[in-house]
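Q: Predict the bound structure with adenosine-5'-diphosphate.
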Amino acid sequence: MKIQTKIAIQFSLIVGSLLAVFSFVIYQLFAEFRQQEYYDRLKSKAITTAQLLIKVDEIDRNLLKIIDKNTLTALVDEKVLVFNQHNKLFYSSLDDHVINYSKDLLNRVRKEKYVETNAGDNELVGLLYELNGHHYVILASAYDKFGRSKMANLRDILYTGLIVGIMLTILLGVFFAGNALGPVNQFISQISTITANNLRERLDERNEKDEIGQLAAAFNKMMYRLEQSFELQRSFVSHASHELRTPLAALKSEVEISLDENLNVAQHRGILQNIRKDIDRLIALSNSLLQIVRPLKSKINNTSEVRIDDVVFQAQDELLLSKPDYRISVEYAREPENEKHIIVLGDEPLLKTVFTNLMSNACKYSSNHLALVVIDFNETHTLVSIQDEGIGIPPEDFTAIFEPFYRSRNALTISGFGVGLSVCKKILELHQGKIHVKSKQGKGSIFTVELPHIS
Ligand code: ADP
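A: Predicted complex:
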């Protein structure tokens, strides 16, 4: 069911029920008020009759009957009966005894002194009247014709009001729900046209303060991130294929040259050595591509407590094993009194990749192939800085070098794919860590890694 229909139904049900309860309460209160008012009229009628009949000697029963019948305020179907203490009818306003009364009723009046009840459709009041030690029971009954017709009128008005009210509520519910959800329908039709080719499409944010505006703004932000990540993937694929094409083209031409029958063994050997270099380059490239793809996952799988100095030493050992001409020295800025200051929660192999990449860059981009690693900490973070005295980085590239495949102009003569630093940054983000760079061209660079420790 559509939300618009749901809201309209719920709105109509709530307002309809309120209207029904309201109408019922009004009707009920009016009914009670009418009845009470009528009982009061009957009571004063009964008292007047008793006083005229019993107290005033000049008025006899026949005269009273005549007065009763001709009084202007006579009630519809009015009957007044007076009984003496032996329950004998002492006076009746009508000649026929059509008022319903029973011994029980008379006894109840004697007991309770005042009774309000019904006799068929008529209201009936009974009261005990005492004079000179004699107890008279007076019953007064009549039909509230005007009150009841007012009630019937009120009922009709309330019924009509209720039906019209419910119909109006349904119409208003449909209208307002449609109005409120109109922009959502517009979004749906706009969103359904978005494909990978038009990720630049944005929703109309209109009034940013209401929920619909906030939804559009959040959607637009998501679209921006999607667009960025699509862009990144596109440039990744184009860079990767470009990087692959160069060694593959070189391999092809080397193979073609080696097919020349006139080459001697030494020349063949030279070509094969070139082929081996290109294959090594291809392997290095595919390793870099794997590195960049692996941590692209949005969370780390194997988290454990990792001692950062252990990881740094492991990275140092592994790097020196594959590059024996590199020199890496590791120092502590100060002795950690609490080992928790250099323990972080994270994925050990991923963290090792970070330090291997940074140490390898430091050695690679400096003629003395020397990297100085310093381990330190502050209140919240473990800090590792990797320093070299190499070629340095142009200041305008400080941000760009962390983008995949970006390489500074001064580094182009040194082999590399521009992947390592972007991988480091991504891994550190997954660990809530950071990386900063300070560098001076021709003097050297210092990369600092910050990782939140467990203490
Ligand atoms: P690669 O070293 O394979 O090119 P990276 O992503 O590790 O890829 O580095 C990106 C770029 O940052 C490098 O091409 C280089 O221009 C610059 N760079 C990184 N580390 C250093 C460093 N220690 N000294 C000078 N330049 C560096």
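A: The chain is about 55% helix and 20% strand.
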